[in-house]
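Exercise 7. Predict the structure of histidine kinase from Stutzerimonas azotifigens.
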Amino acid sequence: MMRRAVWLLLLLTWPTWGGADEREQQRPTALSVFEDRSGALGIDEVAALPEQAFRRLPERRFFREYTHSAFWFRVETVPASERDYRRWLSIGDPRLTDVAVYVPAERGWRRMQAGIVYPPEQWTVLARQPLFPVEPETKGQLFIRVAGDSLLVVEPLFWSEHELLTHRQRIAFADGLTLGIVLLVVPLSLVIGLIMRSPLLVVHAATVLGYIVLTCIVNGYLINWPALLPWTAHLRFLASVTSFAAVLTYLCVLLQVRQLPRVWVWIYGVAFTLFMLSSMWGLFVDYAVGRQAAEWVMRVVIYLLVPVTLLASWRRGLPLMWMAWAVPMLYMLQFLARYVFHADQIPWQSRQDFLSLSSTLPGVAVLTCTLITELYRSRARQRWAQAERGQRRLAARARLEATVARRTDQLDASLHARATLLSRLSQELRGPLLDIIDRARRLYAVASGDYPQRIERNAQRQLELIDELGALSDQDALPSPSLRAGSLHAFLRELAEEAELLAARQHNRFECGLGAAVPDEVLADFGRLRRVLINLLGNAAKFTHDGRIALSVDCIEHDERRVRLRFCVADTGIGVHLDDRANMQQPFIRGRNVGAIDGFGLGLDIVRQLLSSLGSALHLAEDQLPGSRFSFEVRLLLAERQDVAYGEAKP
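Solution. The predicted structure, encoded as tokens:
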């Protein structure tokens, strides 16, 4: 990643290489300067000064920062070539705000001017860089007056038409390439940062964007909007304050200042306040003092506060990314190059390169590294999230399997306990019932009527139920149906007698209807059929008061070997609530309208299990009539006549 960043940085600096050799033949042969501390001298007074008043510049390039003085330059003109019909004089850096050129004329001096202190219509040439035409016949000395509220970078150069066009093309290409790279990388970083929710990437992109706006204002690009030229100082103030705020926010996010004690946040807030107040002082009171103070605040933040913050974050054990170390190191290298070794030959380290358009490129290179880093971290977080999700899924599966195993063990233990309980109950109940059957048989000789037969029959049926209970405890399922031949009519008569007794308990009337096509001799499991009907009739008798209970049997299909019968139990009781119909056959579920009527909600569940063993199912009529109507259908085989002799109409 670092290798790619270095190659990118070299590519971005390419537009700034070369171009110095072509200027050697265009520079004036002599350049001297006079400082007018009052800034009030005119051309006649300066031209009358003695030779000793001017200081010769051996480097033919002049720099001065934030001063109230006006500087007068005396320039020896360069002889024009034969093919030049006009030459152009460039004074220096585009950020010059007050430039005047005095050329000898027949009657005194001819004045040409440029800079934002003059209305655009008063400029000699409306150009981003102060530019003045010099006629070929102009010879001798000319004077240049320079003043302004910014850095003064003065380097007078004479250009031919062709040289000026070539120079402008090169500068336009370099600036266009720089702006193209910035406008490509910065919006892309902003969009990706917003999508990825990366505060570091968003703030870094905003920092580069604010800086490029500031450099465009400083380098005279407002010339494209002449109406904004009088507001250059105000726009520069807003851009510099916004850019510095973005830089501080970027450093706070990068160095995780919010994770440090709160005093660090206050320190950065005080630094921003001092910078803003200094910039306001420079805008409204004294530009020299205010801008120098603002630069000192910026230097203290970058070269002192940032390394100290990095050490504080490191000592606190915060997880810092590699760029949190790289950015302060780059600032320290910049400090050494500028103020210790004075390495002006390094790109962007000379004073005239400060706030140049190409000085944005290192920030773009670092922004590209931030973008690559955030993409890599995003992929790493995605892989970590996938691994974490996989581990959680495995852990959840393990917990589920452990829970299932535990519940299975509990269920096995519960089933074993139930089987043990059922076995004990069946064993305990058999003894008294056998004694009841024996006593009933002894009553045959002395009792009148059929009461002994009824006692014996009911006790025998109860004994069969207990036997089934014992079988259920051994097999945990109902035993297979036991089919035998018998009289269905006699079975229904006995069932009707018991149903009349059940109905009479709550003053109900019982009715029994038998279809004409219902056969008599059938093969059926009379025991289970009886239990189904008794449960349904018992429920009807329980939930009906002073009403009617009816049992009907109809033949709906008949052939030579088998018959299909429909049994229906109807009542005029409280019925089944509409919201309870879906769960009415579940165990331990009681209707919400049963009130204080006793019960456990097991009757219909027993009926459902018994009918399932008979190959049938229970249905509830969905009508608006009062009460409830339960029905089911069973298929029975017709019994041969010789088989009926072995069975009776009792279960």
